[in-house]
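writing this on my phone so excuse typos. first protein, seq and then structure
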Amino acid sequence: MIDIDDSVLKDIKTGFNLPPKPALLSQLQDTLKEPEPDLHQIAELISTDIATSAAVLKVINSSSYGMARTITDIRQAVMFLGLDSITTLVTGFLIKQAFDQKTCAIKLERFWDTATEIADVATLIGKKIKSKVPVENLHMLGLFHDAGIPAMAMKYGNYLDVLTTANQQPTVNLVAHEATYYQTNHAVIGYYLASSWNLPKAICQLILRHHDIDYFNENHPSDEKLCMATLKMAENLVYTNKRFVSDPDWPHVKTAVLKVLDLEEDDYQDIKDDAQEYFIE
């Protein structure tokens, strides 16, 4: 069990220059808190940011949505996607823009490519098993779960060396290496970042615990366990496809993950095949 109290958060706040929550996201979150959020108002809000608008239109016109015609208007995109999906899309785009490559010790484009792959595979798994968890939540968790990594790479000039060492020792997860060098880890930093951006509390907790192999031995709401199990499977499938070895956490959580997702080994292999097709495409 990982316990994060106010003193820990205070230390992180003073020690890390984390990206502040963008004004656009604050305005969007405030609008969504209203009893009856106005889709047209949300569309107008997003339209004020050209880069975000372009990113939303690019996604909705991608092959994954299979639209019969090109969507060129943000209002149409919002109406089609709905509040939850549009919020996830905007949040994902803004977090990618929040880090500056000039001050970061890792290649951000490569990092976000991997995060997007995990988010996409998590969504694929959710659809495959007809999970009761909204795919928007799975996608947001997949995209955000490692957001503490670029934050650490901006603070520590030698972070790439630690990351390289971790990659060379596939049986030990990254947080163990980080704790040795920095007395903190990307799960804790990611939790603080997600909290400061006012992401759903359940998502924040899952980010905090996503490398904690004891998580599945504890009592948690079923939807949260489904989210975590889906994330861990997605992480492993992406890791396996890109590095041809299992994710360091997978041997410790595989049995619990399959149980939570109510999958047999054959079912897992079917999903593994689907993930391979995703990378081929």
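second protein below, same order as before
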Amino acid sequence: AGCGDTDDSQEEKATSEAITLRLLTHDSFVVSEGVLETFTDETGIEVELIQGGDAGTVVNQAILTKGNPQADVLFGIDSTFLSRALDEDLFLAHELPADIAIDAELVLDPGGHVSPIDYGDVCVNYDEAYFAERALAVPQTFDDLVAPAYKDLLVVENPATSSPGLAFLLATDAAFGPDGWSDWWAAADANGVLVVDGWEEAYNGAFSGGGASGGTRPLVVSYASSPPAEVFYADPPITEAPTGVVESTCFRQVEGAGVLVGTDHPDEAGQLVDFLLSEAFQSDVALSMFVFPVRTGVELPQVFLDHAARPATVLRLPDAQIAANRDAWIDEWTDLVQR
């Protein structure tokens, strides 16, 4: 009997070792060397990354391949696109281990189809040097951003294809209400706002403060945690962030992961979701993707504590309101803004 148990165990391990899970993510997904290998060491399961554009594009791809997915797990869906995925039944329900503690305010889906992994605040960032050199006041409000003094200075992401772009659209709705947000965007369009498809193109291409990008626009929709990234990656080293955050524009965005319907390995895919909430992965997200971990008790690195903006209040909208209006708002925005 003892030999039989050993053989069964070896057979199960061999089967597990033969599995490779595909993890579909947005292009901004980064993980430190060796982190995913920890999952493989613990389970024998390999992980193959598939990066498919911005978060909105990734979700759209998953919808188009529903039931026959190109991956087993999707990471990067956020609260702005969540209802679309749930309406399409993209994810299997998955129960997290009881020892994983998450702030209740960050739970995305009480049904367990999408588990929160990280969060960030989408805000307008500014290039400190640009404004200092011109003795131009840094804008403090949405209304400032559409004032003549800031004409042709702002770059944003397309809300139809970009999760931070959609979050910023929702921020204007939260700030001005259903009868005022479109007026703000009409004013922004008249004031020369530049629209690009995704965050990479906006921050690392058009933004003048994005490292050595050579961009010309000193205002960009990015994250409250972008300044510590500038400090962390600076060469030569710096002690002050060259970028700042317009905190009145911040909208809370929670990113999650789920097991895709149609996977051949639902149990193993669930293990990968659990791993994304492990201390090993959660302690890595701050300095790999410059977002905040959702697991309670995870310590933040000092550069994050020193330079990430922590707005006292953030803009929010109820999930039901986003679900009921998102597509109509995007359509209306598309008609308003000349790209």
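The mean pLDDT is 91. thats all i got for now
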